[in-house]
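the two lines:
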Amino acid sequence: MSRKSKGDIGSARQRPQLNLVDFSFLDRKAELAGLLQAKSRQVGRSLVENEADFWKFVGKYEAMMRATGQPVLPPLLAESDLASTQPYYRSKHLALRLEKDELLQEAHAEVQAQFRHLLLVYLDFRQTEKFQRIRKLRQAQRNLPIARFRQDLRDALDTSRVVIVAGDTGCGKSTQVPQFLYDFGYRSIACTQPRRLACVSLCKRVAHELLDDYGSRVAFQIRFERSRTQRTNILFITEGLLLRQLAVAANLDQYDALILDEIHERNLFGDFLLGVTKCLLRARPQLKLILMSATINVELFHGYFRDEGARLVQVPGRLFPIKLRYMPPPALELKAGQATAASKRSHSARIDPAPFVQVLSLIDQQYPTSERGDVLIFVSGVNEIESVVEAVQEYATEQTHWLVLPLHSGQAIAEQGKVFDYAPEGWRKCIVSTNIAETSLTVDGVRFVIDSGKVKEMSYDAACKGQRLKEFWVSKSSAEQRKGRAGRTGPGVCFRLYTADQFNAFEAYPTPEIYRVPLDTMLLQMVSMGLPDVRAFPFIEAPETERIEQTILALKQHCALSVEEKITPLGSSLANLPVELSIGKMLLMGCVFPEVEQLLTLAAMLSVQNPLTNRAHTDQRCVRERESLESDQGDLFTLVRLFREWVQLKMRREGTRQWCRRLGIEEQRFYEVTKLRAQFQRILESCGMVVASSSDSQLTSAERATRHGELRQLKAMKRRQRFEQPRQRKLLKQSGGRGQEDDEERDEEQGSDMRDVDFRLRFDPRQLTLLERSARLDRHRDVVLLKLLLGSGFYPQLAISDEFNYCKGGGQQFFHTRLKPFVLQHPNAHFAKHYELLKLTDSDLLAKPNFYTPKHPISERHQLLCYQSLLETAKPYLINCIRLPAAQTLLLFSFSIDTNAGISQIVCDGWLGLDLPMPGSGMELLSRAIELRQRWSRLLYAKLEDLNNKQEASSGVSDGSSTLWHELLDFMALDVAYAIKRLLPADIKRLYSHETPSTRLMELKENPFARDYPMTVNDEKGGLNVSEHVVYNCLAEQQWTMAMDAALRAEPWTCPRCDFELEEFDVLEQLVHRSHCKGRKAQGRKPKSDSPVSMPETSRSSSSHSSGSYYCKSCQRELRLSKIDILRHQKQCRNSK
Amino acid sequence: MEADEDFVLDNEAAEIQRLGLPEEEKKPTDPEEEDERIARIEFLCSGCEMQEMVHYFGRKPPFSLGIKYPEDNYVMRDPFQPPPPRWQTKAEYYISLGANCSICSKTVCKDPGCSFYYTATFCLPCGQDELKNWPVEAQARIRKQLSASQGNKK
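prediction for all of em together
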């Protein structure tokens, strides 16, 4: 049929026949290959997708013909012959013809013609294959339990706006319901998923079923990644992102159907979405809402949407029978003995992997490897995964048919994807997973489930504002879900490593997340979405009222909510930032300063999971490699240094993956930092908080040309990868149980590090330089400012060293937070290893004045820790600490500051007391702190106001900000001697005088601390409110403060800056004078950059000079001293007189 | 929920729609109606009710390379291969799902349970009527299919 002209036929019949006994096309491959080519402008365009596959087919075909006794190839027929039914030729079954006009070469000889015919047979065979592939796909869909409920769903949607689809694992609801909706005519369907990975895998699956693997009708949108285009009809999106969209486009008008999947998981965002969509239904009468859940507690959801007339569609699951075997680890006493012995050695109660390996060995004994079936192990956390993986790998060195794959949410997506790959024939995958594989993520082919019965859950302790990560027994419903994973593809076995009695004692359902996490971010979002009263939010199960109240109070303290619980400009900006409140706050606080580059990097670093892996701390090689980069400012600063090092490698175009592995860094986190940082920048720029950077224009033309070439190359790589991506499941490599590492190495050989390609696409050399600079923390003043900003965000998360730390070793360095005493540094933290950094050295201790009798040490070097979070695992640990000068930090950030009349005593937030027995030092510190705070918040509010009025930030603001910056640095570097102590309940009882202020105070014409703040009497504590945060003269005098007063009153006082003199030392008079002192005003106007204090590190030892020269009258010398030192000097002089 | 995922969820609230990645939003260069890449022809098998949208009905799909069909076929672009650049073709970028029965003109898919091809497409019922006119080899083949499809129905 390759030859159709009549003339050819006659000659063809005379041609010698081909006999496959003594002939093979394979012998003439080279000569025949040209016949496979089509006419085309492109060289070498073949008619077959895969030539190797074609030649394989030729071989098989020939063999088949020989085997069936038909070695003589039948003659080729003309088109007209092919149409007549008689006589019989096999070729008459071929429903395909070659298009001669499109072929490159003509087939003249019989060999060539027969070869062409064979090509046609092959193409026809491939058609059948592809057709069957589609048909099988459809059959599989039709066989899903949900398929029978398609019409029910349609009816339900016709009659109601809310439909609940309750179906067990494996009923196909997650993949099919979005497609049903598409078939019903909905064209903009959003389907939420709790996890990113589920979004991606569902998107791929549904796209495949819609035969749209290479299109974008189905898309996903997760953080940092989206495949959505204008053609997208079905979008899989994470819950958090949909909530974000709600915050921006209040009614989600872009969607006509909304599917909330996995609502039974009851995570925070899921619950939040349920409430929000309940409200949304009123605003959007056209919207259809479909809730999907496993058959867990369905009545709860049905009842919740009863008023909306929710219809329930219940779909039975499709599970094969699962044999249940309870296999508690034997003899608990014996085990307990081993466990303690082991834990003594390793200092941590690690999971014992032996029972898991025993089950594997049981499987090996009872089920031949010829029977396929993989193993899924459920453990509680990443550490447990590592232990089990390690043990199984060891086991796999003997039983070499095991492929071990860890699975948890901390992995990169590509890494997680490996669990879907096939194990080769005769091998078994052993997937060791957290509860991530319990519901949403479905791995097919699992026949055996080994359930530890444990889950790690974060709980929130409102009492100490800390989180607790603890291992619990799972709930009954979770245990059943886990079991169900064994029966998806065939009958299975579930091994439970606990007893039936234990199972019966499990809780029915897991605790909803809303009871286990802080509510601040969620409540703030609610208010910013316009909810007038969060207490009235229709929670499906409301958290305790007390916790809501506490959270509202905290939001007010952070000035995110006004006293009337309305959103403040700060609050709405915070709600806009997709980060924890503390990080959002530091970003905004930092925006008033001229440079935010470093802050952005730091904040991004704080927002990702810790880039250091466990190995980073256990493997001594990693520890050594990192040593030189450790910062004595704490782990956060070390991480930024590592990040900078990484960016520098990128700048030199060196490979970073190896380097990361050597140092124990999870590189994915650094990529996340770069993305997150860019996102912060975008958000802050878009709302006018920072000035947009214009980096592109600054490339030279040569650079642009190079960049252009590079971009083309990178884009080509990306396209290639995109089209390779919807690959079918790969066959896992057989490598002695170590599937994962090997795969990574293979990727590396190919040099196809797509994350690197993405990174290079986003960063041109110029931007890389900026990024590198943003991670540079060499200048001491940058470090100080950043620490200050960190502190502003973390506050009130402060911890103070235990007073006996000075005489204890590393393991016993305790710290106290306001709400929780005796917490520790995490053992891996820099401050745990170098705890001396937090201690006062002997040289730091200063002599006490005679009147100061308390035992607390006096020093200028007291430090406090500011921490990001308090996490209780084995012990309560402070996470991500920075150290800050104590007094300055407290005075800048405390919500409430109380002092006595002489300002020799200051109490911050009712738990930390400062004693300042050096005359005048308290006044100096406090007055300056009040002034700085006012200026800072004024600048911030000016920015936020501008932003609300949609104006450009005025340049005047940034001028003010740079002097503020310098003055803050001066302030932080002030050398003030004081003692710091934690107040005990007994102290607090006697703390306040509760006296109305003296007439002298009441008669003050003007607030000496803040002129424009109206002073009022504080009825509760006594004294006067002199600023938003400060109450003056409310602390009861102590013995030593009275003694100090008495000692000072005997002396006259001269203002160190002007010639003002007082006959006796009187703090109030001094205060009044201070606000009018001409010398100070002159000082204040001086540009601070002249001041030598701007480099505090260098000037610290020699004490800081912020005033010019000083002439001491009593010793008649010209001195260069700071204010405080002048005071000190005066006193010494007097004493020596 | 486990520890490290807590971070993830917090941060999940990340991407703001309006700040997204605009460069990925490609406007269709043509009005959608003219986009030949969209399947608009409905194929419905009268035998098994297999239902798909296909791109082409006829003998020579514009997206095929080097082949044609001897009768009108329902053909879709191969969804399992990356698409070629627009207006271009590539190897085996076509899948025929079925054709109309040469006797009764009913649409039938390529599955052996629905159709039989011998010199032309026959739906199985028509094939059963027609087979007596065929050589024995062809008869044997269709009988095999008929009995298999009846076996399936039982």
